[in-house]
Amino acid sequence: MKTAIITGASSGLGRELVRQIEDVFPDIESYWLIARRADRLEDLARSLTGRTVACLALDLCDPMSFVTLREKLSAEQPEISLLVNCAGCGVLGRLGETDTAAQTRVVDLNIRALTAVTNMALPYMAEGSRILNVSSIASFCPNPRMTVYSASKAYVSAFTIGLGEELRRRRITATAVCPGPMDTEFLPLAGITGHSSTFEFLPYCDQVKVAGGALRAAKAGRTVYTPKLFYKFYRLLAKALPSTLLVRFVKT
Ligand SMILES: NC(=O)c1ccc[n+]([C@@H]2O[C@H](COP(=O)([O-])OP(=O)(O)OC[C@H]3O[C@@H](n4cnc5c(N)ncnc54)[C@H](OP(=O)(O)O)[C@@H]3O)[C@@H](O)[C@H]2O)c1
To answer: What integer is the mean pLDDT of 144-162?
Structure first.
């Protein structure tokens, strides 16, 4: 049975991606939903009629979660045809002035867990499978006051491009989606709401549209998908200008 694994499925973009998978990948019959909040995952699972759904309440910042996932993979030997790494977090604040645990959690989740889940899932992925990694416009240039977050997303984008090339011979594609701000729990959890004039000025992306576009981009095997013309232009600008110059203008 073709299976999709989705991290960060309990809210925001991840939940929307889960809701739209059947529109773009109708042959996927089984979903493994991963996040910490079991109640949210179970609510979502109940809404997915006609699909086999497993809810894995895992804290991906805890390395024991990797053991649990590896054991489940080994026991069930799923045919993974879609892996979505969406779980992510951020923190607004200057280094040296913010909680160390909050900053390192960003690295643990956005980099370490994404790397671990991908590495563990790949042996179960066949030719034609798709990987969708949720990056951000923050990956285009370092963002002061979100330095760790933007560096973590630069990792996600670079990881995706390198991975896609590694997997070319297996005919598996990897896509990085780079949304701008979305009105999800991410913003208050990162301490952004009400504390960043940049976020008040930037155009917002609708997570429903981002999810559909990202799934279609993954199906098409695109390497990087940036929703919204405004951010496509920003991506080009960030490629054209030295980051040492642009960084002065992209404070959060
Ligand atoms: N919102 C934005 O402005 C924005 C912009 C660009 C990119 N992004 C990226 O989009 C992705 C989704 O974020 P979102 O905006 O949808 O925010 P969100 O609603 O806060 O979703 C984050 C997801 O990650 C899960 N998660 C957080 N910590 C976790 C942990 N330790 N272990 C397992 N799962 C964990 C959360 O579930 P639990 O709390 O239940 O664990 C939730 O399902 C992230 O990678 C984020 O960086 C967001």
So the answer is: 98
Name residue, tokens 């002065």.
248
Ligand 1 nearest atom to the CA of residue 90, by list position: 47
**C-beta of 164 in contact with ligand 1 (< 6 A):** no
Taking only the tens place, the pLDDT of each residue in 121-146 is 999 999 999 999 999 999 999 999 99
What does the domain layout of the chain look like in residue ranges? 2-246
Q: Which CATH superfamily is domain 2-246 in?
A: NAD(P)-binding Rossmann-like Domain (3.40.50.720)
What is the C-alpha end-to-end distance of the chain, expressed in Å?
44
Average confidence score pLDDT of the chain: 98
**Spatial separation of the C-alpha atoms in residues 250 and 158, rounded to whole Å:** 20
Which of 189, 224, 175, 226 is CA-nearest to residue 205?
Answer: 226
136 in ligand 1 pocket by Cβ < 6 Å? yes
